[in-house]
Amino acid sequence: MSTPADTQDDVSLSELKNKMADFAQERDWDQFHSPRNLLLALVGEVGELSEIFQWKGEVPRGLPGWEDKEKQHLGEELSDVLLYLVRLSDICGVDLGKAVLRKLEINATKYPVKLCKGSSKKHNQIINNSDTSSSNIKDDGVSHDGV
């Protein structure tokens, strides 16, 4: 599998999915890529990503003051997380692009601009503190749903 760096600005989820499938097939790794194994690998990579920020306190956007080597390491760990997520969705038969777009629509309903703009409150706190009915918004106990 060729991996030309910096030859393309945008990469689709479909391209990543296909590249990951080819990568695994070339190495005969499909046998190890069960949903459980991929999930555990993903969690491990999220842990490695977390370690980068662990003792830095609040970090401003753009990572001012970070060395190029630190930013490169961050990019590698973010890539590992994305690649395992894409592979997991493929193995589970989930179209990640469609799932993400659907989830954004759900979140737009749960977090209407006029009620939540500038607020970090969970959707049920915003709705319960407004005069608007919350009958169509489900409280599932999940904070901010990926946004």
UniProtKB/TrEMBL annotation:
Gene Ontology terms, MF aspect: dCTP diphosphatase activity; magnesium ion binding
Ranges annotated as biased composition (Low complexity): 126-136
Bias kind Basic and acidic residues: ranges: 137-147
Enzyme class: hydrolase
Reactions the enzyme catalyzes: dCTP + H2O = dCMP + diphosphate + H(+)
GO cellular component, one term: cytosol
Alphabetic keyword roster: Cytoplasm, Hydrolase, Magnesium, Metal-binding
Pfam families assigned to the protein according to its UniProt record, in alphabetical order: MazG-like (PF12643)
Ranges where the record places region Disordered: 123-147
EC number: 3.6.1.12
Lineage: superkingdom: Eukaryota
GO biological process, one term: dCTP catabolic process
Subcellular location: Cytoplasm, Cytosol
Gene3D superfamilies per record: MazG-like
Cofactor or coenzyme needed: Mg(2+)
InterPro entries: DCTPP (IPR025984)
Subunit structure, interactors included: Homotetramer.
Function in brief: Hydrolyzes deoxynucleoside triphosphates (dNTPs) to the corresponding nucleoside monophosphates. Has a strong preference for dCTP and its analogs including 5-iodo-dCTP and 5-methyl-dCTP for which it may even have a higher efficiency. May protect DNA or RNA against the incorporation of these genotoxic nucleotide analogs through their catabolism.
Protein's UniProt name: dCTP pyrophosphatase 1
